[in-house]
Amino acid sequence: MIKNWTKMTFMTFMFFSTMMALSSNNWLGSWMGLEINLIAFTSLMYMKLNYYTSESSMKYFIIQSMGSSILLLGIIILSLKIMENTIIMMMGLMIKLGAAPFHMWMISMMESLNWMNCLILSTWQKIATLMLMSYIINKTSMINVVLSLIVGSIGGINQLSIKKMMAYSSINNMGWIIMSMMISMKLWMNYFIIYSMMITSLMIMMMKMKFNYLNQCLFTSSSPLNKLMFSTMMMSMGGLPPMLGFLPKFMTMQSMTLNENFMMLMLMISSSLITLYFYMQICVTMMTLNSSKLKWKLMFNKNSSIMMIMMCMVNMLGFTIIITMKSIN
């Protein structure tokens, strides 16, 4: 009971610290919100004690403290008007976000955390940092976009750990989010909301099925329905049309076409195809390999959760949403 109350307390601190960082009208208040958020999430990681969580919580604390120190230095320099450029603040935010070339801590962190903490790290922990970054985004962030796209797509190939694969996919999607942030505020917020929906459904299913490595996916004895749902969510994360994951990428590509930014668009599409390759490789192998349970009556067994089916249906709604938006326009 005490542990549950402690967990609820730190979850509340994590929630309200993000709200504090978003609603603050000055940079110092936002910085304070990020620091409270850091302490709350580090404590949540440390609650389940083993060698990996203690190491990862210390690593997360050190990296995030370094990013916060650089951010505070940039805030002081900007307030004293020593230099008008916000590149130091951008560097601190990039470190906290885990975007390339400051991405190596993100890979090892995702590997050592459980799925619920991975989900929080990939979604909630990025909200305040991305919002602060959108205030000072400029053309100098293009190098981070290019590096995130290249590292996130190539790094995920031949990974045996699903958590590492998800980390590299997150870095690749971070390149898309930063690029959409340079176009408009509404675009990156829509991208991040849809991305959060997809990664939440996929990680919850990973947690339910207790998948951590690829061999567990390929040689699993799950029912055909679970395999179908898992493959659908994987293809949605890769951005395969007509899945939901194609929708934010389609909106970003459309905006970049209107802005005539064709070179960067080609790089983004190429990196997305590489990401789709290592997702499709899992899906095709899983769906074509025979299972030890071959009877189709097991398709609707007691392990088939209604929530998983609903999340799978949500990930298949991308084409319907695109058609609806086109008809409205």
TrEMBL record:
UniProt GO MF annotations: NADH dehydrogenase (ubiquinone) activity
A GO cellular component annotation in the UniProt record: mitochondrial inner membrane
EC number: 7.1.1.2
Origin: domain of life: Eukaryota
Reaction(s) catalysed (UniProt annotation): a ubiquinone + NADH + 5 H(+)(in) = a ubiquinol + NAD(+) + 4 H(+)(out)
Signal peptide region: none
Subcellular location: Mitochondrion inner membrane
Keyword S-adenosyl-L-methionine: no
Domain NADH:quinone oxidoreductase/Mrp antiporter transmembrane: 24-79, 80-275
Leading EC class: translocase
Transmembrane segments: 31-49, 61-80, 86-106, 142-158, 189-207, 228-247, 262-284, 305-325
Membrane topology type: Multi-pass membrane protein
A single BP term in Gene Ontology: mitochondrial electron transport, NADH to ubiquinone
Family: Belongs to the complex I subunit 2 family.
Role description: Core subunit of the mitochondrial membrane respiratory chain NADH dehydrogenase (Complex I) that is believed to belong to the minimal assembly required for catalysis. Complex I functions in the transfer of electrons from NADH to the respiratory chain. The immediate electron acceptor for the enzyme is believed to be ubiquinone.
Protein name: NADH-ubiquinone oxidoreductase chain 2
Encoding gene (name): nad2
